[in-house]
Write a structure and sequence with these properties.
74 residues, alpha+beta, three-stranded antiparallel sheet, 15% strand, globular
Length: 74
């Protein structure tokens, strides 16, 4: 299933050790059973249910659930 992530020019299609924290948050939320969909002309927003999140808000949501670690703790 295509999720729209590979077309985001600022995000690589393949994750590396320097993976984008937003994509890590998306993957973590999806692994936890949360349906996350990219939206917008530049795919700069994310939809979960009826709610729309910015990249930063999406990451904070994943962090608040303990699904991603703060970048300072790496």
């Amino acid at each position: 299933m295509y999720d729209g992530l590979a077309s985001r020019s600022r995000y690589p299609a393949i994750m590396t050790d320097d993976a984008d924290p937003v994509l890590e948050a998306v993957a973590a939320l999806r692994a936890a059973g949360v349906a996350v969909a990219p939206i917008g002309d530049e795919l700069e927003r994310w939809q979960i249910g009826d709610l729309i999140f910015s990249d930063a808000d999406l990451w904070r949501l994943a962090a608040s659930r303990g699904l991603v670690e703060d970048g300072d703790s790496r």
